[in-house]
Amino acid sequence: MQQFLNTARRVVSRAVWATASLGLAGVAMAQGPQVGAPSPPTPVKPDDPPAIMSFLIMIAMIALVVFANAIPTKRGHQD
Hints:
This protein is mostly helical. The chain has helices spanning 2-29, 51-70. The chain has a domain at 1-26.
């Protein structure tokens, strides 16, 4: 009896998977043929970044680094 149940369970499982795979194939076929191949987007030349703003940001960052290094550390006598 146990062997019959295992065989039946295996047959039903395979039938379910076969039905599901055929169902998904139908959905894929419903999309139809492509009329034309999609073309890639045409690249657009990006705007030039403002040079003055870039230099000001660079100078500000360097000034912050120099300022942070110029702060004296308070070391105790046990260091």
